[in-house]
Amino acid sequence: MFKLRPFSKGLIYLILIIYSIGVFIPFLTLGLNSFKSLREIFLTPFSLPSYFRIENYAATWKQANLLIAYINSFTISIVSIFGILLTSSMIAYILARYDFPFRRILYLYIISGLVLPARLAIIPIYLLLRDLALLDTRIGLILVYIATGIPFSVFILKHFMEAVPVEIEDSARIDGASPWKIYSLIILPLCRPALVVVGIFNFVAIWNDFFFPLILINSRSKETIPLAISVFFGEYANQWHLLSTALWMATFPALLMFAILSKQFISGMTQGAIK
Amino acid sequence: MVKKQVRRRKRRKSKQALIGYLFLSPVFLFYSIFLVFPIGFSLYLSFHRWNMLTPPLKARYMGMKHFTYLLIQDETFLIVLKNTLFYALGTVFIGMILALIVALAFSRTKYSSIWRFVYFAPVVTPPVAIGMIWGYLYRPTDGLINTVLRWFYLPGQQWLSSPAQALPSIMITGMWAGVGFTMLIFIAGLKGIPEMYYDAARIDGANFWQAFWHITLPLLKPTILFVLVTGMIGAWQVFDLVFMMSSGGIDTGVVPFESVGVVALHMYQTAFRYMRMGRASAMAFILFLVVLAFTLIELRVLRRGGVESY
Q1: Do B163 and B201 have their domain in common?
Q2: pTM for the whole thing?
Q3: Can you give the pLDDT at residue B309?
Q4: Interface contact flag, A270 B188, Cβ < 8 Å
């Protein structure tokens, strides 16, 4: 690394501080507004609340259906990630290690999903789920997420697996390990950094997704966080004290959780999962 | 002897193929049903007129009519396509430059866990929520942004309420939401550049800019390609932010659809509000082709620039 002069060092911190302010002001406004009355928000939008109104939280928590939305979002994301990791790592392993006819074509077939955006196939997906009686179910949504997550995940995992030395597998094979054992006991643990990266990539996409739940989910008992917020937004238009509270409660816990996980993510990325 | 070996190798190869297909087939079937088949079916629908009430296979055949209608007669679609192009190019390129600047600054600091929290915050906030928060910040009379502008004696802007400013305003929000993730990838890319290159450059008397142009940027090319390709594919499909910040949302400005509409939103309305499944599928398919063309161009241009992988 180049030694920095005090001036450049100052510049670097200036950039980071400006960036941080830009990122945090919206969240801060939200957090402060969640403790205010509506009148206060309009009169003194950017000052501290005169007293902290906890009652905003009590009122919003139930109305916004947030507990159920949190449970749904968590279940759907975790099950989908698990499905994506299992399916993609299997495909990636076979494509990286086994030699058989049409291997290259099969790989291209999977990878083509990267440039064919799944959102644009929403109408047939809607019909398919309707005909399978999976419309307005969490399982339907999970299946769609797994399918749409496969191309990107296979792409990353295959690249990573190709860099794993073959000798380890060969020695296991000589010791009589079955293909499934080699895959689950040797390859998967070695690919942990790539699996973490793929997992978080997909988690972020699924956790934030609004498009598929908007179209595929109808009942309030099955809605995810983004859907719950948008419904609440429609019902409580202009009630900014309640809206702020709902938004704050919908985003802050997730923020904390990801802040803890992000360390894993960075180490996964720097170990060469993305090149 | 040789014959035996060949036979053994052949047997091994066919065994490999068997295991390969065995491992693959269930996942393959699933993938084909839930992703490839829908995409193919949307191609079928785009040549038919269908309102979802009759069985889809009995839908009336329209030939290329949807496509000619969209590309020649329908003014909204072309405007919406242009908006989407503007959004994708703007947010991806400006966002990439901003992300690179902050990532460079970031890679030179200590206390990285605090900064990490900072740039991860917008990434894990659903765009729906971001759209709402920014709708509030953009309010012309009492929004935070105009208030700050007035502190510096600058004129307040109409933001989402003005047809000319609405789309750029949404793009600013889009960049705010997306820069963190791009940075994350850049930081990983920067960490992957071996320290010794910089050491060698320093010994040869290179300054920061020379090192940046001749070491950092060339070695970062695969990362840039990755960010560009994935970023563009995502940006072409932008939906949530526009949905929340245009007339779909409340309390933000109300501007004509033409000034902010993007393809995914137009498609959603055509399909699920007006029940014109065929026309909406044709829109989707035109966008498929555009995304594909852009991706191939990006890959080609950057490959020529010396990116070997992918």
Answers
A1: yes
A2: 0.88
A3: 47
A4: yes
Residue of B nearest to A44 (CA): B142
Cβ(B187)–Cβ(B169) below 8 Å: no
For residues B16 and B157, membership in a common domain is answered with no
Q: Is the pLDDT of residue B66 over 50?
A: yes
Among the listed residues A56, A26, A25, the one whose alpha carbon sits nearest the alpha carbon of residue A40: A56
Mean pLDDT across the stretch A98-111?
A: 86
ipTM associated with this complex: 0.87
- Burial label for B101, CB within 10 Å (0-12, 13-18, 19+), is middle
Count of CB atoms situated within 10 Å of the CB of A108: 10
d(CA B267, CA B284): 7
* Residue B109: domain span: 66-304
Distance of alpha carbon A157 from alpha carbon A163, whole angstroms: 10
Give yes or no for B254 touching A (CB within 8 A).
no
CB contact under 8 A, A45 and B142: yes
Residue of A2, A14, A120, A260 best to disrupt the B interface, most CBs of B under 10 A: A120
Task: Name, of A233-237, B35-39, B51-55, the range with top average pLDDT.
Answer: B35-39
Residue B214 lies in a domain: yes
Distance CA A229, CA A206 (A): 16
Residues B81, B30, single domain; the answer is no
Record the tokens describing residue B121, joined without a space: 């915050």
B111, B93, A120, A112: CA torsion to nearest 10: -80
Alpha carbon distance B307, A52 (integer Å): 55
* Residue A270 pLDDT level (bands cut at 50, 70, 90): low
Q: Compare CB distances from B126 to A100, A124, A226 and report the shortest one's residue.
A: A226
What does the DSSP 8-state code read for residue B219? Answer: H
